[in-house]
Amino acid sequence: KLLRDLAGPLAAVGGGTLLAVSGILAWNALENALLDQRLRNSATRFVLVNGAEINVNDIGEGDVVVVLDSGLGMSSLCWAWVQDKVAKVTRVLSIDRPGLGCSPP
C-alpha cells in the first residue's frame, strides 16, 4: 500500500526513483525478518559497554577472534554471509552499535 501511495509522486521524479524506493522497502522487510531470526539464535546476546547494550552475534571457534563492525548506519546483518564463512575457520563476532539492528538506542 505504501508503494502504491508513493507511486504517483515518485513517477514525476522518475522511474529510477520508484525502483530505488521499492528496493529499499524490500531490503527493509528482509532485514526485519533476518533480525527476528537472529534474536532467536542462541549465538546472539547483549553485552553492556559503557552503559549501552550492544547486540553481539558470536559464532565459530578459534584462538583468533575477528570483530565485524558495520558502517554507514547499517546493522550487523550486512556481515551475515561473511561471518558464516569466517566462522568456519575461527571465532567471529558481529556487533550492532547502539540504535542499530538489534541494539537499543
Keywords:
105 residues, alpha+beta, four-stranded mixed β-sheet, 43% helix, globular
How would you characterize the overall build of this protein?
It is a single chain. This protein is an alpha+beta fold. The protein is built from 3 helices and 4 strands; from the N terminus they run ααβββαβ. The chain has helices at residues 2-13, 15-40, 80-86; strands at residues 44-49, 52-59, 65-69, 91-96. Helix 3 links the parallel strand 3 and strand 4. Helix 1 packs antiparallel against helix 2 (15-40). The longest helix is centred in the first third of the chain and has 26 residues, at 15-40. The two termini are 29 Å apart.
Quick synopsis:
The chain has 105 residues and is of the alpha+beta class.
Radius of gyration: 17 Å
Strand count, sense and barrel status of the largest sheet are: 4 strands, mixed
Order of helices and strands: HHEEEHE
Number of strands: 4
Based on CA inertia axes, which overall geometry fits? globular
> How far apart, in Å, are the first and last alpha carbons?
29 Å
**Oligomer description:** single chain
Which structural class do the helices and strands define? alpha+beta
Please give the count of helices: 3
Give me the secondary-structure topology.
Layout lengths: L1 H12 L1 H26 L3 E6 L2 E8 L5 E5 L10 H7 L4 E6 L9
